[in-house]
């Protein structure tokens, strides 16, 4: 338990120190919809759906948040946040390409670093990396265990929400 706590704390510190600007940029992008006539659509895949559930049903729900579905018609006032474990997720990539073609601004949250060759990074307006490349804890056989994508995603979600709430409060 102590080793897990230490490793999670280290992960959160890495995210906080290296992704702060990207978190601010993502909050700013999403705030454009929240402050205007748009909606903020969370397009979550696999275990990252937990972030959308939290955003919708939490004690402090995410403002103007809607769950993205393929049949939704987006407007230029809307913003989308793609939440996926991997930047190679085919559904996430297909959505990103469609949003890009239709000039709908969107952000991405995924594990891989923001670098050339990462298609989701290349297409997105803002990109936040989960900083998870392997398991946090060593196993007896030399492999690595515990890949807390959803937990790290919820940490980033809370950071984005804090920034977005401050921005919206400043508008009032």
Description of the molecule:
There is one protein chain. This protein is an alpha/beta fold and 172 residues long. It contains six helices and seven strands; from the N terminus they run ααβαββαβαβββα. It has helices at residues 2-18, 20-35, 49-57, 90-101, 119-123, 149-171; strands at residues 40-44, 65-67, 79-83, 106-110, 126-129, 137-138, 144-145. The strands form two sheets. A five-stranded parallel β-sheet has the order 2-1-3-4-5, sandwiched between helices. It has a two-stranded antiparallel ribbon with strand order 6-7. Helix 4 (90-101) links the parallel strand 3 (79-83) and strand 4 (106-110). Helix 2 (20-35) crosses helix 6 (149-171) and helix 3 (49-57) packs parallel to helix 6 (149-171). The chain is globular and about 55 Å long. The termini are far apart.
Mean pLDDT: 94
Order of helices and strands: HHEHEEHEHEEEH
What would you report as the Rg, rounded to the nearest angstrom? 16 Å
Low-pLDDT segments, ≥5 res? none
Number of strands: 7
- Strands ordered across the widest β-sheet: 2-1-3-4-5
- Annotation field: number of helices: 6
What structural class is derived from the secondary structure elements?
Answer: alpha/beta
- What share of the residues lie within helices? 40-55%
Report the β-strand fraction as a percent range: 15-25%
The separation of the N and C termini measures 44 Å
Shape: globular
Main β-sheet, in a few words?
5 strands, parallel
């Amino acid at each position: 338990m102590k080793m897990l706590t230490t490793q999670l704390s280290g992960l959160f510190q890495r995210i906080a120190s290296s992704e702060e600007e990207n978190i601010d940029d993502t909050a700013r992008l999403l705030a454009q919809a929240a402050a205007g006539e748009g909606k903020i659509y969370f397009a979550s895949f696999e275990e990252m759906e937990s972030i959308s559930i939290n955003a919708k049903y939490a004690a402090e729900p995410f403002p103007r948040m809607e769950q993205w579905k393929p049949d939704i018609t987006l407007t230029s006032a809307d913003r989308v946040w793609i939440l996926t474990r991997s930047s190679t997720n085919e559904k996430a990539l297909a959505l990103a390409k469609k949003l890009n073609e239709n000039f709908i601004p969107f952000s991405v949250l995924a594990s891989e670093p923001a670098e050339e060759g990462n298609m989701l990074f290349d297409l997105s307006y803002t990109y936040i990396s989960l900083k998870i490349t392997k398991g946090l804890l060593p196993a007896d056989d030399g492999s690595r265990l515990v890949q807390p994508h959803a937990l790290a995603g919820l940490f980033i979600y809370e950071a984005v929400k804090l920034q977005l709430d401050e921005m919206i409060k400043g508008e009032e």
